[in-house]
Amino acid sequence: MTFEKSVAIIGGGPSGLATAKALAEEHAFDRIVIFEQQPQVGGVWNYSSTKPGNSPIPSNNPSITREWSANGVEDYVSPMYENLETNVIKDLMGYKDYPFPEACDILPSREDVLEYVLNYAVDLKDPISVLVNKAVVNLHKTGSEWRLRSRDLISQATTEDSFQYVVIATGHYNFPYVPDVPGLQEWAEADPSSISHSKYYINNQKFKGKKVLVIGNSASGADISLQLTEVTWPVYRSKKSEGIVKAFEIDDVIEVQEIKRYDISSRTATAVDGTTISDIDHIIFCTGYLYDFPFLKSYMEGEDALITDGRITRRLHRQIFYIPDPSLSFVGIMKNIIPFPLAESQGAVIARVYSGRLKLPSEAEMRNEEVEEIKKRGGESKFHSFATPTDVEYAQELASLVDKAVPFDAGFKAEIWTEEKKNRRVDFVDIKQKRHSEHRERIKRNRKAQETSTQAEA
């Protein structure tokens, strides 16, 4: 009897595709199956032109009741918004030996990124197969096999399959985080349409002439607040700390400290320093996401629970392998990184471990390493945060692991970070800030032109 070596990859986005190609390069697997719940691969880069529903308020625990569609599968909503461009320059963002087209802007649009990923997936071949419109609803280990149950979102039929290994590449933009702040739930109950999360933001048109409070100062908070100034001003933006891409100061965005209380009766928000914003029409939470794997419910309890409060994915060796059972692994769950190349680095390690060419440390050693890693990173809350240069250092550590596999030249290897690339990794933040400045100048010119036109008509 021949033993089949098979791998399931949950998620057909950029990370899942990169991992599939790395696995295929090992020539050690009979089946590599990608399960993607959308009609095509591409992951979060598939844009949702309509976004029905909203996140619960508050939304701070993945175990709370979720909104499910009639077929028992959560409706997918992409976090992409209409006028989104990347925070990463194209020269650093691309896969190895597969650059973005010259015609693409230095900060590619969401449309360009999706086209790039779709083209990257064109040459997927045996033993890789892609199942689209397939939502994984349950995953559990029985003996030496992973039992995976999926639902076809067209026919609603469910199917079960078995795999030796499973890679989870569903990303971390699924479960919106909205903090529990006094008065917020009462506000949401009284006027639910006035509160939303950035995941449900499409464009600025519904906010024209409205008084808007943006909560959060990360990339989406800075970008969305700037877009809002095209149609309303001033915009208020609350921040706890400085974002990775520092939001430059402009007159039309008034920064306030963290909000400590909301009052729907006066439509007022009060900051920790006592500052109040009154007569608020809309509140947009740009507060990020929690980790959530709804198909792994049986792995959410006990000492080795993968998820507790959703702030991190626990018990992971090198941000990849589930320590109690490394036949389960994760790709692309880190934050503040260059995702496509890093997925290739992680995929190269996974491929060598699952093919048997690279050995992991003992479980005891991996547990000790996890404890030390959490201490090194400054606590659990920062476990997945890899701002430059730590993301580059991490990729180099993975490259060193890959080089230990024998034979040395076999299989896929991710691109090495040269000194030039490392420098550009630091410099691209300035490029994004320059883009924001240019956007702001366009807004000012357009506003002045409108004022001139109005005066002429008068």
TrEMBL record:
- For region Disordered, the annotated ranges are 435-458
For bias kind Basic residues, which ranges apply? 435-447
Signal peptide feature range: none
Presence of keyword Cytoplasm: no
Q: Which UniProt keywords apply?
A: FAD, Flavoprotein, NADP, Oxidoreductase
Question: In the UniProt record, does the keyword Cell membrane occur?
Answer: no
One GO molecular-function entry: flavin adenine dinucleotide binding
Q: Which PANTHER family match?
A: DIMETHYLANILINE MONOOXYGENASE (PTHR23023)
Q: Which family does it belong to?
A: Belongs to the FMO family.
Protein name per the record: BA75_01854T0
